[in-house]
Amino acid sequence: MNPPDLRPDLARARISDDSLLGRREGQPTIGMVSLGCPKALVDSERILTRLRAEGYAISPDYKGADAVIVNTCGFLDSAKAESLDAIGEALRENGKVLVTGCLGAEPEYITGAHPKVLAVTGPHQYEAVLDAVHAAVPPQPDPFIDLLPASGVSLTPRHYSYLKISEGCNHKCKFCIIPDMRGRLVSRPAHAIVREAEKLVQAGVRELLVISQDTSAYGLDLRHATDRGHRAHITDLARDLGSLGAWVRLHYVYPYPHVRDLIPLMAEGLVLPYLDIPFQHAHPDVLRRMARPAAAARTLDEIAAWRAICPDITLRSTFIVGYPGETEAEFQTLLDWLDEAQLDRVGAFQYENVKGARANDLPDHVPAEVKQDRFDRFMEKAQAISEARLAAKVGTRLEVIVDSVDDQGATCRTKADAPEIDGNLFIDEGFDTLSPGDIVTVTVDEAGEYDLWGRL
């Protein structure tokens, strides 16, 4: 599980399911450190599932592994540094390390810092990763017990799972190198996504978190074709997934006009009333310098229309402060826009140069101390909005999903909260009968800046 106190792009997923850790004598064993966003976590799960099918055991620590795979993040320079640190730690603790993931698109960068790594592969190069593992730790499968795993390896708790619907991105934002690392949009067939979702729900998953680089664009490369009764379009896919009986949460949704067609599904209860939309900024000139659609005013109109259809909708977004050329007036426009938009969940990053990004060459880079000041002011504004919107929920009844239970209480999430990203709802009395994955109704008693407290 990713530690909840870390950003997803800095978190390390580790195996926590004891049923996966049993090892027969002589069985080759692989460890995995998974950095990066949930999309990378899905890649890690796929790699481990393939290795399990080939007869490998999975180790929860360095000492029990014959080799370690480090799935890296390369989106920001700070994330690259985190990845290099993780590779160095694995080399010190184990010695046999294979590197994959987004930073693997720059093999010389990795081998320059750590020449002793056994192999480097890029993002979603599953066959190359398997070949590298075979070379480092040859498989020794027992065909009677190893080649038919009951289900895929999961790096998340059993009651929720990430569901990747596409890979790559067709945008050319100047601050981003994801299209260079992961390529252009490649959508999975809708019937394959629905089949995977059905298996997850049958295995006990209560919440499906739909992810991709650009969820709104799903199926565009397939020309929204229908195959085996399922159309490759985000609206149709959301409707199909919503029919399975689990919570369906949509992440990374760009505000294209057709997004408004998703809102009635939320009002009907088929999909959670939650949109994760990367607005990035509000001033049209900054958006143009980012090479993003400069339509902040129309975005406010869209938000108003969404809330008119589904008043309970939760809107979360991330923003970049201190982008090259950002003036104080442009930043103030962003603060004013936040006041008007009243987004429920907001995060921000201070702009960083990323090797290969076109934004590096823009003039008028903002000094570090100015970026920090704007970040602090932005988060103060966002925190005040969050606190006020949560305070309005005191006294209401909400459905929550239980994530964990200990002797202090139950940690839950409302429909407005994605795991490890948003807030929590805590139950500190009468929780003895609760178990992870339960969905129960609570009355909200208290609100903080980001979290809620309630009772059954």
TrEMBL record:
Q: Where does [4Fe-4S] cluster 2 bind?
A: 169, 173, 176
Task: Kindly state one GO CC term assigned in the UniProt record.
Answer: ribosome
Record text on cofactor binding: Binds 2 [4Fe-4S] clusters. One cluster is coordinated with 3 cysteines and an exchangeable S-adenosyl-L-methionine.
Catalytic activity, per the record? L-aspartate(89)-[ribosomal protein uS12]-hydrogen + (sulfur carrier)-SH + AH2 + 2 S-adenosyl-L-methionine = 3-methylsulfanyl-L-aspartate(89)-[ribosomal protein uS12]-hydrogen + (sulfur carrier)-H + 5'-deoxyadenosine + L-methionine + A + S-adenosyl-L-homocysteine + 2 H(+)
Q: Which SUPFAM superfamilies match?
A: Radical SAM enzymes (SSF102114)
Q: What is its main location?
A: cytoplasm
Enumerate the subcellular locations listed in this protein's record, separating them with semicolons: Cytoplasm
- Where's the Radical SAM core domain? 155-388
Domain TRAM residues, every copy: 391-456
One Pfam family here: TRAM_2
The entry assigns this protein to a family as follows: Belongs to the methylthiotransferase family. RimO subfamily.
This protein's name: Ribosomal protein uS12 methylthiotransferase RimO
Species of origin: Paracoccus acridae
